[in-house]
Design brief:
Largest sheet: 6 strands, mixed
Bound molecules: adenosine monophosphate, magnesium ion
CATH architecture of the largest domain: 3-Layer(aba) Sandwich
Helix content: 10-25%
Strand order of the largest sheet: 15-12-16-20-19-17
Radius of gyration: 32 Å
Structural class: alpha/beta
Distance between the termini: 38 Å
Mean pLDDT: 95
CATH class of the largest domain: Alpha Beta
């Protein structure tokens, strides 16, 4: 039996960072930047006002106070998106809006609230002159050109994950498209004579295929593009044929057929069409894991991850081995799940020396995390996953993790109520 780490290392050895693609910036959200991004020009391009107010020369308002306002002649007005038409001189001011370029000659902006504009308006006094009630140091409320970005400066680094703020920065520099690592395509095949597609009619002895849908969703959450191949019965030819439809993808994932039962034939397909890397991992659930490669059309070896069929095993196996492979292909190599240390609320039994991933709900009470089992830990009970936000780990060498002990929990999501 392999440890989880050994299995993961062997699997990850088959994957590399995928090639870049160019796409519209909005479609690149969540992907990894494949190029360094330099400022194309200064941002802001021109010195501009941080406030609505009056552009002045600082020397014109030196010593101003409410008792001794400085009266300046207003020679014009300038709004954002327009260029000033007059320069500011000693003793003059230009009315200016936030974001509007600073007129020549001005070196400070006095906000409206520090002038007598409101009083003038209220008493219909001429606005050709404005009384300034405060002194303004040079540079007051002036946003200099290039304050955010200088032309030629590196702004975003290759390898960065594009979030809302990075997309905004790209837009601010007029980039419509960007080069990012493409998303891996993941083909998913469910196997089992008993399976019926959820869109189809139920039949006696049949069960609906949930694994295709849970894996596809987990693939999408991990940043991959799922491609459902459908359902193959438990025979080598059918599985082999259907897998061929997925050979153009970056990874094939099958569910079921990898345990020791009579009809567990996924491993026979791998034996016939590909190489088998290993079969058993020292973990629960998801001990039987198949991993190998199949020959692609162009001689490429297409990795194949065979997950066990029980719905919880499928998801936990995907979490430990499928997600990391996708994350690596996306160029996000160092993005493991976050873990928290929590106080366990019930025992986790470990009767055969495997690493147990127990489904738990983590909550925070008075600054401390607590992990509560979400019910019976049988690997066929998928609804126990719906109540879980983490997998609490009982190590291989621990026969029981006791209630009240500290446990490491791999967080599979961070819902609001954890905080
Ligand atoms: P197996 O790995 O073929 O022995 O399957 C183990 C268990 O998982 C059996 O109870 C199967 O019916 C169930 N199972 C297999 N594939 C799926 C699937 N796609 N959706 C839901 N349950 C499945
Ligand atoms: Mg089966």
């Amino acid at each position: 039996m392999l440890s989880v780490e050994e299995a993961l290392e062997r699997i990850l050895a088959f994957f590399h960072v995928l090639e870049p693609e160019r796409k519209p910036i909005l479609d690149a959200l969540g992907q990894v930047l494949a190029e360094d991004i330099e400022g194309r020009f200064d941002i802001p391009p021109l010195a501009n006002s941080a406030m609505d107010g009056y552009a002045v020369q600082a020397t014109s308002v030196a010593g101003a106070s409410p008792e001794h306002p400085m009266n300046l002649r207003v020679t014009g007005t300038v709004a954002a998106g327009h260029l000033p038409t007059v320069a500011v001189e000693a003793g003059t001011a230009v009315r200016i809006m936030t974001g509007a370029p600073i007129p020549d000659g001005a070196d400070a902006v006095v906000p409206f609230e520090d002038t007598d504009e409101v009083e003038r308006r209220a008493s219909s006094v001429s606005m050709d002159t404005i009384g300034v009630n405060v002194a303004a140091p040079i540079g007051a409320n002036v946003r200099p050109a290039g304050q955010d970005v200088r032309a030629g400066q590196q702004v975003l680094q290759k390898g960065a994950v594009l979030r809302a703020q990075e997309i905004g920065v790209l837009a601010s520099m007029g980039y419509g498209e960007v080069s990012v690592i493409r998303r891996p395509v993941v083909s998913i095949l469910a196997t089992g004579d008993e399976l019926v597609d959820p869109a189809g009619e139920p039949r006696p002895g049949g069960i609906y295929d949930s694994n295709s849908y849970s894996i596809a969703s987990a693939v999408r959450q991990a940043g991959g593009v799922p491609h459902l191949l459908g359902i193959a019965g438990d025979n080598v030819e059918a599985i082999g044929e259907m897998l061929k439809q997925g050979l153009a993808s970056d990874i094939l994932i099958t569910s079921a057929g990898v345990s020791k039962g009579d009809y567990d034939v996924v491993k026979d397909v791998l034996a016939r069409q590909g190489d088998i890397s290993f079969w058993s991992v020292r973990m629960r659930p998801a001990k039987p894991i198949a991993f190998g490669t199949l020959a692609g059309p162009d001689g490429r070896r297409v990795p194949h991850l065979g997950l066990p069929g029980n719905p919880v095993s499928t998801l936990v196996g995907f979490e430990q081995f499928g997600r990391p492979a996708i994350v690596k292909m996306l160029g996000k190599g160092g993005s493991p799940r976050s873990t928290v240390q929590a106080i366990l609320e019930q025992d986790i039994d470990n009767y055969d020396g495997r690493r147990v991933y127990a489904r738990v709900k983590v909550v925070k009470r008075e600054g401390v995390y607590y992990a509560k089992l979400t019910g019976h830990q049988s690997s066929n009970l998928l609804t126990s996953m719906t109540r879980a936000n983490g997998l609490a780990i009982c190590p291989e060498d621990t026969s029981v993790k006791k209630a009240g002990e500290q446990v490491t929990v791999q967080m599979i999501d961070w819902p609001e109520n954890v905080f």
